[in-house]
Design brief:
485 residues; alpha+beta; Nucleotidyltransferase, domain 5; 2 domains; 7-stranded mixed beta sheet; 19 helices; 23 strands
């Protein structure tokens, strides 16, 4: 038996699988996010430990036999968070999360530092870890002076589980301290961010054993005494493992809270000027590139909040298949945007609204705006040399047939919808645990899920959506000029 843990922003999920990768059981525990100021997003790392304990105890209570046969576990975690610990390993302050934008000025300074983009392979975005530490140095100097080490969220949890201070490669790649080509900490990047290599944990690959689970935790959770804890990975890298996207040409689109298009790469080919992220994969000697938009299903959630209708109800107002783009358009920049604009200040809006438009028209415009934003990301990925002839579609937004068909029409590629089952980050983590503990070949473990159906682009609407996309691309500079005035 093997365990995959998915440390998300709002909760932790533990998945128990057998040695074939088949799901046996799962348990979840939630926690909250704190927003103490505008643009701030923080979490108490103690909540992750409590949630992990709760989920593991639930599995132990309901499935004692399988839990007693667990050989290894691995963790997927949300990226970029900064957990600052003192010389005893205790957190000095709440974790500053990936969606925290307080360090936008520090990020801009780092990004403008000669050699930084070249060394990291990425623009330094405000959500990355390095600018967060510069902010702490400037705004909380007493805390900064006590920082003995910095952990990413899931690596902090690994330290709790094993006592080992490690940093897994795919997660570390999003810190702006890692040389992604060399897969090692960069002296130039650390110096630019005011950090020291001694404050960095030991680097490991996602399939490498980090340590052995603490004996007291193993006892409390009904696990064997020699459970290995494997490196795991950053959430999107591990989700790629869950859907078998680890070799050149494979990729997925995620319609989640944020929107992601990920392309697996066999080589390291960064092009930071595109605002595409280039990171180490959780699999050794592999990389991945992804475009990121900050508000995908979050845009529909927002519309639901202001119309008083749940997102699912808004989706139900629309037919299964679109007949063409809406006359209204929506710019999905509710929290700024990453790819391709790298603009934390831009904000969204509707254009072309008519007095006859109602909630259904606005829901359609929101779904199309998200699809157009993802098309921006796909075009940026193509500029780096990534080629994606089809995509696996995952995330909560794929429950909407209208949204899926719209996305296929806008992207111009077939979308494969997985059959019911486990294929997300928790499954990817379990697969990493299997490979790390047994030495199993990645190709035999990290396979594609069964596909329930494929959604092909409606070629009769290609011209209409191309015209609508052209109008969408003109929206950003117009909004930027207005909001900057």
């Amino acid at each position: 038996m093997f365990l995959g843990l998915d440390l998300g922003t709002s909760g932790l999920r533990a998945l128990l699988v057998d040695d074939t990768g088949a799901s046996v059981a799962s348990a979840e525990a939630g926690y909250s996010v704190s927003h103490p100021a505008s643009g701030w997003s923080e979490q108490d790392p103690a909540h992750w430990i409590t949630a992990c304990d709760s989920a593991m105890r639930a599995l132990a209570a309901d499935h004692p036999g399988p839990m007693s046969a667990v050989r290894a576990l691995a963790i997927s975690g949300h990226m970029h968070g900064a957990v600052l610990v003192d010389d005893t390993g205790a957190p000095l302050r709440p974790c500053i999360l990936w969606n925290d934008t307080r360090s936008h000025a520090q990020a801009a300074r780092l990004d403008a530092t000669p050699g930084v983009r070249e060394a990291s392979g990425n623009i330094v975005f405000p959500g990355f870890t390095a600018p967060k530490l510069v902010w702490v140095a400037e705004e909380e100097p007493d805390i900064f002076a006590r920082v003995a080490m910095v952990h990413l969220p899931k690596d902090y949890l690994i330290r709790h589980l094993t006592g080992e201070a490690v940093a897994e490669m795919s997660d570390a790649a999003g810190s702006a301290w890692l040389d992604i080509a060399a897969r090692d900490w960069s002296a130039l990047l650390l110096d630019a961010g005011g950090m020291d290599r001694a404050q960095m944990p030991r680097l490991i690959e996602g399939t490498e054993v980090a340590g052995t689970l603490r004996a007291d935790l193993a006892r409390d959770w009904g696990l064997p005494s020699n459970v290995q804890v494997v490196g795991g990975g950053a959430d999107n890298a591990v989700a790629a493992c869950g859907v078998g996207a680890w070799a050149e040409g494979a990729g997925f689109v995620s319609l989640g809270t944020s929107g992601v298009i990920l392309a697996a790469r066999d080589t390291c080919a960064p092009m930071p000027e595109t605002a595409v992220h280039t990171f180490c994969h959780a699999i050794p000697e592999r990389w991945y590139q992804m475009s990121v938009m900050l508000a995908a299903t979050d845009s529909l959630n927002w519309l639901g909040g202001i119309t008083g209708q749940p997102p699912a109800a808004l989706s139900d107002l629309l037919p299964d298949a679109p007949t063409g783009p809406s006359s209204a358009q929506f710019a999905p920049y509710l929290s700024g945007e990453r790819t391709p604009h790298n603009d934390a200040a831009i904000r969204g809006g509707f254009t072309g609204l008519d007095i006859a438009h109602g909630p259904a028209d606005m829901a359609q415009a929101v779904m199309e705006g998200v699809a157009f934003g993802l098309r921006d990301g796909l075009e940026a990925l193509k500029a780096t040399g990534a080629r994606l002839d089809r995509l696996i579609a995952i995330g909560g937004g794929t429950q909407s047939p209208f949204w899926c068909q719209t996305l296929a029409n806008v992207l111009g590629v077939p979308l494969d919808l997985p059959a019911q089952g486990e294929f997300g980050a928790a499954m990817g983590a379990a697969r990493l645990a299997i490979c790390g503990a047994t030495g199993a070949d990645v190709a035999g473990v990290m396979t594609r899920p069964d596909i329930a159906r494929t959604i092909d682009p409606d070629t009769t609407l290609t011209h209409a959506y191309s015209s609508a996309y052209a109008r969408f691309t003109a929206t950003y500079p117009a909004l930027s000029a207005l909001q900057g005035a």
